[in-house]
Amino acid sequence: MSRPRVLSGIQPTADSFHLGNYLGALRQWVAMQDSCDAFYCVVDLHAITVPQDPAVLRRRTRVAAAQLFGAGLDPDRCTVFVQSHVPEHVELAWVLGCLTGFGEASRMVQFKDKSAKAGPDTASVGLFTYPILQAADILLYQTDQVPVGEDQRQHLELTRDLAQRFNHRFGETFVIPRPYILPGVAKIADLQDPTIKMSKSSSSPQGIVDVLEDPAAIRRKIGRAVTDAGTEVRADEEAKPGITNLLRIYSALTGEAVASLEQRYAGAGYGTLKKDLADVVVNALAPVRERTEKMLADTDHLDRLLAQGASRARQVAGVTMAAVRDRVGLLPPS
Ligand code: TYM
User: Fold this and answer.
1) Is 197 assigned a catalytic role?
2) Which of 42, 85, 287, 317 is most buried, most CB within 10 Å of its CB?
3) How far apart are CA 319 and CA 143, in angstroms?
4) pTM value?
5) What average pLDDT does the chain have?
6) Catalytic annotation on 221?
């Protein structure tokens, strides 16, 4: 039996990924590279849906790719590429856009959030059609599973709807993809406001732990994480969102169940938990940072790996796109 096909993407919109990206997505990507036929892309075309400085975007795209390898993706076991290197993504996005209702696209909550932040006159049409490009990313590879965090669920639903609609209208063409969302890590919270997700656009850098951050800063941020009234180390999403978040991060990084951590830290207090968690996080991220730095020290090598990834991706994307052109009735050039 052939291995399930996996695709996921990440935006190069910061100088480092954060712990939410790492636990909610990247670790699953690494795990799936052996059990699945996996494609992972740095989605630079998604990054330009909000204003970007060209030099910064180029740098961040390399830093993002280097972190993917640094996190443990192996170019011999999976395909890592930059989205804009495979022009079929944009071509399929156009076709899918022509099947998407205006009202349907208007219901995407991420667009509503982001455009509210940008202001109604500054939000671009690209930001509006962002989820359609994401659907194209996924459907081009006949993807079975998409490892993502909770915030991507609605985009995955749109992707499934578009695939079904296309298949219904033009004949079986696309695999209908399923989201792969791990409950314990699907929504890592901000350390300063544990009621919201950790996010690059979060208001305070104190709430975010970056993958490439230096250990002293990581320790400081975890030490100052907002916790809840009381002293009891117990997971309770409603009453104790701060401690719950710290326990989830601890559990995800060590494999020890939250219930076991609760027992072990019963009576120890928040301070001890935070100190130990800081060690756990620093030790988990140190090798990722070291490998990333090594990758970035030889950008020619990094660029070669990305070129090789793009060429593998294009082989798959090209086959799907040829079928799409044919089904839709686009006249082939003679
Ligand atoms: P992006 O770049 O915002 O985030 C990358 C991945 O990290 C997950 N994530 C989180 N998981 C848990 N807790 C958090 N606090 C947290 N913050 C982020 C995201 O869910 C995501 O899986 N639209 C996508 C990129 C994309 C994509 C795709 C994803 C483009 N094309 C195709 C899958 C398939 C995004 O902006 O992710």
Assistant:
1) yes
2) 42
3) 14
4) 0.97
5) 96
6) no
Which of 19, 27, 148, 155 has the most ligand 1 atoms within 8 A of CB, as the residue to mutate?
148
Helix, strand or coil, per DSSP, at residue 310? helix
**Which conformational region is residue 100 in: left (phi greater than 0), alpha (psi within -120 to 50 degrees), or beta?**
beta
Report which protein residue has its CA nearest ligand 1's atom 35. Answer: 10
Q: What is the pLDDT of residues 48-73, one digit of tens each?
A: 999 999 999 999 999 999 999 999 99
The reply to whether 200 belongs to the active site is: yes
pLDDT digits (tens, 9 = 90+) for 206-222: 999 999 999 999 999 99
Query: Cα dihedral sign for 199, 196, 158, 80?
Result: positive
Nearest alpha carbon, ligand 1 atom 19: 149
Q: What's the pLDDT tens digit per position in 144-176?
A: 999 999 999 999 999 999 999 999 999 999 999
Is residue 202 within 8 Å of 196, Cβ to Cβ?
A: yes
C-alpha dist (Å) from residue 307 to 64, 77, 87, 251: 15, 16, 13, 37
SS (H, E, C) 94-113: HHHHCCCCHHHHHCCHHHHH
Under a CB-based contact definition with an 8 Å cutoff, are residues 183 and 162 in contact?
no
pLDDT tens digit string along 319-329?
Answer: 999 999 999 99
Strand blocks (E) in the chain: 5-10, 37-42, 79-82, 145-147, 178-180
Ligand 1 center from residue 10 Cα (angstroms):
6
